[in-house]
Amino acid sequence: MNVTDNTVDPGEKTYRTNMWLENKITTIEKAYQPDFCWHQIPGEDTPVNMEENRHEPAVLDKPKVPYRTQLTGVKDYNAAAAMIGKTIDACLENTQIPGDVEAVMELLKEFKPRNLREGILVSQAVASHFMALKQIERARKALVPESASLYLREAHKLQRMLLEILDHLDKDQGKKNQQNIRVEHVHIHDGGQAVVGNVAH
């Protein structure tokens, strides 16, 4: 992802970056699906297994959901790859460290996003988590207390943002559908009644 040759045309840099990411994702897909490689054929909605048959859908015992869709909730291959790439860029300062890119992608997968909205929230959650950790690390390495305090404040903002994102994600995924009602100091006199909960008139 890191292209340092300033003499290269911006379009060429974008092409190199996209090719690097595509190769990386394909490599990981093959690691998770050893004898299997999905390809999207123009005009066909269902990816097919090029190693078995170019014109027939993959056999039923193969994964039904492409790996990059599992990470993003996005069905379109290019859009999913772009979302993964931007998330990796936000999480990692150096994408060449072995295992780091795979770790980011596994975190995305653990959330199990089901659609674009959830995919966006998951991407932001993972990125804000990594960015908060970066600020904490910088605070630990800071030479003066003022700098450390600044980094920790930034980390705190990111952590609060992460909690808000996770709250939205939980609601979207139906993990937060219970309403808790706390009642304190209720006095009921003779002949009176008290109702706790939703009241329909």
Could you characterize what this model shows?
The termini are far apart. The chain has a domain at 10-32 and 65-172. The chain has 201 residues and is mainly alpha-helical. The longest helix has 28 residues, at 145-172. The chain has a two-stranded antiparallel ribbon. The protein has helices at residues 10-32, 67-72, 77-91, 100-110, 116-141, 145-172; strands at residues 38-39, 48-49. It has 6 helices and 2 strands; from the N terminus they run αββααααα.
- Distance, first to last CA: 60 Å
* Helix coverage percent: 40-55%
Beta-strand percent range? under 5%
Broad structural category: mainly alpha
Instruction: Label the overall shape.
Output: flat
Number of helices: 6
Stretches where pLDDT is under 50 for at least 5 consecutive residues are: 1-5, 34-42, 48-63
How confident is the prediction overall: mean pLDDT?
Answer: 76
The total of beta strands comes to: 2
Summarize the helix and strand pattern as letters: HEEHHHHH
**Biggest β-sheet: strands ordered side by side in the sheet:** 1-2
Biggest sheet layout: 2 strands, antiparallel
Radius of gyration (CA) equals 24 Å
Which key features would you list for this structure?
201 residues, mainly alpha, disordered N terminus
List the helices and strands and how they pair.
Blueprint (H helix, E strand, L loop, with lengths): L9 H23 L5 E2 L8 E2 L17 H6 L4 H15 L8 H11 L5 H26 L3 H28 L29
Helix pairs in contact: 3-5, 5-6
Give a brief outline of the structure.
The protein is mainly α. The chain contains six helices and two strands, in the order αββααααα. A two-stranded antiparallel ribbon has the order 1-2.
